[in-house]
Amino acid sequence: MHVMEQGDLEELSQLELAKQVGEALNKHYPDHPWIIGFQGGGIVIRHLGIAGAVAQELGVEGFSSLLPKNKLGTPKEIEQSCVTFGGAMLEAFGLKRGKWHGEDPMVPTAWKCKQRNNFT
Predict the structure, then answer these.
(1) Which of 85, 90, 91, 110 is the most buried (most CB within 10 A)?
(2) CA neighbor of 106 nearest in space, from 56, 31, 45, 33
């Protein structure tokens, strides 16, 4: 990971939390291309393989999911929520939980951008 600017104390805290979430996702789902960020205090989780499949299938760039700030909890709760959510994201796009071997994600045929449930 490369940090260009440390930022203020809140940004530094978010950076540390993003690193913690990334490490937890990598521990549970090794070799998956996770990108973790923040938006409005919430955590943004992106899987580059899934984002690429969504872009190719639906023509929508930058697919990611936001866990809102008001639902985050403690750092340990955030880590567990993100691991659970990451696994659900993998399964929703036809990927197995666990180590990634480069399989292509499948965008569910009935799914549309901004859809929050009923992926099958």
Answers:
(1) 90
(2) 56
